[in-house]
Amino acid sequence: MIYITQLIYLKPGQEAIFDQFEDIAIPLIAKYNGQLLLRIRPEAAEVIESNIEIPYEVHLVEFETETDFAHFMQDEERKKFVHLKEQSIRTSMLLKGEKL
């Protein structure tokens, strides 16, 4: 298994566009032997300590293999709507790891 953690930072006022993209992308994860384990929207009051900007959302996803993740990223249906992602996301940080 590989684990993907993504910190997502949106452009102001683009929450609805981001949600449209997520409504398409998230169901596709399962098609590639993956599972969304966690999707949270952290609030500043909940953060104990931070040396980075608090993201709009945090996703934790698992895939059986790196190849499964690569296929998800190249999915043709997802690529049709990647313009929604580009329109709504200012920046993101993707961290790959494995369970210890």
Characterization of this structure:
By secondary structure, the protein is of the alpha+beta class. It has a single domain (2-97), classed as Alpha-Beta Plaits, CATH 3.30.70.100. It has helices spanning 15-28, 66-73, 76-80, 82-88, and strands spanning 2-10, 34-40, 57-63, 89-97. It has a 4-stranded antiparallel beta sheet with strand order 2-3-1-4. Helix 1 (15-28) packs antiparallel against helix 4. The longest helix is centred in the N-terminal third of the chain and has 14 residues, at 15-28.
Mean pLDDT over the residues? 96
Molecular shape: globular
β-sheet strand percentage: 25-35%
Distance between the termini: 11 Å
Number of helices: 4
Named at the architecture level, the CATH assignment is 2-Layer Sandwich
Quickly name the level 1 CATH class: Alpha Beta
Low-confidence stretches: none
Largest sheet: 4 strands, antiparallel
Order of helices and strands: EHEEHHHE
What strand line-up does the widest sheet have?
Answer: 2-3-1-4
What is the fold named in CATH at topology level?
Alpha-Beta Plaits
Number of domains: 1
Computed Rg: 14 Å
Number of strands: 4
Look at the helices and sheets and give the structural class.
Answer: alpha+beta
